[in-house]
Write a structure and sequence with these properties.
Pfam families: AAA_5. Residues 36-217 form the AAA+ ATPase domain. One of its GO terms (molecular function) is ATP hydrolysis activity. The chain is α/β, with parallel strands linked by helices. The chain has three domains: 8-71 and 131-201, P-loop containing nucleotide triphosphate hydrolases (Rossmann fold); 81-117, no CATH class; 207-297. The protein is built from 15 helices and nine strands. It has helices at 8-17, 24-36, 50-61, 76-79, 85-98, 106-113, 123-128, 148-160, 191-196, 207-217, 223-236, 247-259, 267-273, 281-290, 292-305, and strands at residues 40-43, 65-69, 81-83, 119-121, 137-141, 162-165, 169-172, 178-183, 198-201. The strands form three sheets. The protein has a five-stranded parallel β-sheet with strand order 2-5-8-1-9. A two-stranded antiparallel sheet has the order 3-4. The two termini are 43 Å apart. The relative contact order is 0.13.
């Protein structure tokens, strides 16, 4: 049975219990998507936790997570369905070897090949034809990487929650999936698809929420370390880096420091672990130009000023 939260606060509480701390706007958007049964389009910079929303929704609702990773050139055979040509060929050879094919018309033999047992269901068809009592969670990740033609097809599927396979007929969703689309905004998603969806821009978390995220995801880290890491990451995001660190990098950094047994930041440990939070050499160089000592000082001041 599908979960039906009563308020956005119920959503926030449930997600927190499953390892994700949303802000009020995101919790409200998720609540409305579940209540109105509308797809939810999440846009934002890479690393702010868009994909994780679908994963935590799957853990919370118990619905199967079905993921479609978009990329340039993706088409129906990768996203919707294809035919298992090797199994079809084996069937033909077996029919010939046993004599079953003798006397059959070409149309009859062809009809045998296009049965559902030879159908390879890709992500979209898996979500539409799902038969369980709990709706699946369909994650359409990085939809901005797909081309216009696929986006138009996706709009049609999300409007009716049905897919037609010419050889078999129409598949319709008994329980429409909970759909989460993500975009890093490498290009603008078309207005028609946006109109079909509810929309939320996912920001980097503010300082206090990022501290709470680190405390939740890295419980072995001391509170003081969590605050200093969050403060340092907050500073890094102001340095006009090529790839500012996201929440995932904040968690990685806290985990690395905790694994090293560190209780606070200092210049030496920041220098040694900078690669866990900054993945481009140019960003590391810019941070060193800013000054690692200054970064540590700002992190300490930030953690103490709000503690």
């Amino acid at each position: 049975m599908a979960i039906s939260p009563s308020t956005p606060a119920d959503v926030a509480h449930a997600l927190s219990l499953h390892g994700y701390i949303p802000d009020e706007g995101l919790a409200t958007s998720i609540f409305l998507a579940m209540t109105l049964r509308r797809p939810l389009l999440l846009e934002g910079e890479a690393g702010v936790g868009k994909t994780e929303v679908a994963k935590v929704l799957s853990r919370w609702t118990g619905g199967e997570l079905i993921r479609l990773q978009c990329y340039e050139g993706i088409d129906v055979s990768q996203a919707v369905y294809d035919w298992d040509y090797s199994r079809q060929l084996l069937h033909l050879r077996a029919a010939e070897a046993t004599g079953e094919s003798q006397g059959l018309r070409t149309d009859d033999l062809e009809a045998q090949l296009y049965q559902e047992k030879f159908l390879l269901k890709r992500a979209l068809l898996q979500a539409i034809s799902h038969t369980g009592d709990v709706p699946p969670v369909l994650l359409i990740d990085e939809v901005d990487r797909a081309d216009d033609e696929f986006e138009a097809y996706l709009l049609e599927v999300l409007s009716e929650f049905q897919i037609t396979v010419p050889e078999l007929g129409r598949f319709s969703a008994t329980h429409p999936p909970l759909v989460v689309l993500t975009s890093n905004r490498t290009r603008d998603v078309h207005d028609a698809l946006k109109r079909r969806c509810l929309y939320h821009w996912v920001e980097h978390p503010d300082f206090e929420r990022e501290v709470a995220i680190v405390q939740l995801r890295v419980p072995q880290a001391l509170d003081s370390l969590a605050r200093q890491v969050a403060g340092a990451v907050e500073t890094l995001r102001t340095l006009n880096l090529y790839k500012p660190p996201g929440v995932a990098e904040t968690i990685d950094w806290a985990q690395a420091l905790a694994a090293l047994g560190r209780q606070h930041l200092d210049e030496a440990v920041v220098a040694a672990t900078l690669g866990t939070v900054l993945k481009y050499r140019e960003d590391q160089d810019r941070t060193r130009q800013h000054g690692l000592a200054a970064l540590v000082k700002q992190a300490l001041e930030r953690s103490l000023a709000t503690s």
